[in-house]
Write a structure and sequence with these properties.
elongated, 74 residues
Length: 74
């Protein structure tokens, strides 16, 4: 399996988990539990988007060349 395939598989798994958390949140009657589930889904989604962005830039922790010198692309 290639790196791209692994990344796509992880992204699908994350989206499935986010969907599951949101469904559970919609089904619960406890407001605190609903909020907790929605927040967990939101954090997971944000983390996935950040990691996907880093992968597109060349891997974990790497910035695009235009950002290395402190001058982002315009």
């Amino acid at each position: 399996m290639s790196i791209a395939d692994e990344s796509a598989s992880r992204a699908r798994q994350t989206q499935d988990k986010v969907r599951e958390l949101n469904e559970r949140a919609e089904q619960t009657s406890d407001p605190k539990e609903r909020r907790r589930l929605y927040e967990e889904a939101r954090r997971m989604q944000e983390r996935s988007l950040r990691e996907g962005g880093r992968a597109a830039e060349g891997g974990p922790g790497r910035r695009a060349d235009s950002e290395k010198d402190g001058h982002p692309s315009r």
